[in-house]
Amino acid sequence: MTAEIDTRALTQYLGRALDGGVSGELTTSLISGGRSNPTYRVTDSDRTWVLRRPPYGHVLPSAHDMKREFTVIEGLTNTSVPVPTTVLLCEDTDVLGAPFYLMEFIDGVPVGTVDQASSLTSDERRRLGFDLVDTLAALHGVDPDAVGLGSFGRPDGYLERQLDRWERQWDASCTIHRPEVSVLLDKLRRALPTSHFPGVVHGDVKLDNVLASRDDHGKIVAVLDWEMATLGDTLADVGIMLSFWDQPGTIDNPITEGLARLDGFPTRTELLDRYTTQRGIEIPDVDWYTVFADFKIAVILEGINTRHTQGGTVGDGFDDIADMVGPLLQRALELAATSSVTELRR
């Protein structure tokens, strides 16, 4: 699948849509094929932006909504959550063949792989882990109504709808029958917790979705990839964070490959203690949220694999996606089997 942007069409559009138009020749380059949304660096002679568009090929229903990403980033601009400044949203598919949005380019340091995080010192990794938790707690403390996001979603019934949604997504994407899926769904439905902490949910909390400061690698300067953001149960984000936070003695998340086991990173227990202290809450049934996170990530990966087999991905890093689904489902089953939540063990 070609990753090229029609620079002529984009130049003409930005000439009309941007104050002052485009200065000089416009160039574009793929930053990341994105296991989700392709992301491009766009540059004229004076400025640099980032362009996000939906994936090519197979797209799951209700997924990859550019307006959704744009809206939540715009809403969080003046909060303590570090996000890029939005520039414009284009919903006219005649321009580039799909909706897209433009935001400022943040010159930060990626820290989402073992190789990238290995370049940090132990102290930097420790502070970065805690800053991720502090940033998440700050996000969950945002009053949606105060930032124009009061109608961004429906917290009531969020967890039930999530289970229904990801079951539908699995049915729409699955390439082989996996009985683990129905077993996990049954366990999750029987053990469904009561939601107590509604708020803005990011939906994909991991180090790969933040940038660290070039001056201080222990400080986050931008939270990215808001495509799954909504209003819901904020503890779902905690489960996602823990799913990506590998620990000694446990099966690694196949995406992160032991990233958080690098020296210096806080433990899961330290992350939870920091989060609950920051928010002044206690977290019940955290195992449910972590099992659900593993299940949800597995479904997302199955969808990406389907898109890849149909030629709808751009960039590298997709050939091993199918091999990640089974281990995540198995890890979820193993955590459920040893959980303190009775209904998960059954």
From TrEMBL:
Cite the Aminoglycoside phosphotransferase domain residue spans from the record: 29-250
**Protein name (database record):** Predicted kinase, aminoglycoside phosphotransferase (APT) family
Alphabetized UniProt keyword annotations: Kinase, Transferase
**What GO annotations for molecular function exist for this entry?**
kinase activity
- Organism of origin is Rhodococcus rhodochrous J3
Q: What is the top-level taxon of the source organism?
A: Bacteria
InterPro entries given in the database record: ACAD10-like, ACAD10_11_N, Aminoglycoside_PTrfase, Kinase-like_dom_sf
Q: Would I find Transferase among this entry's keywords? A: yes
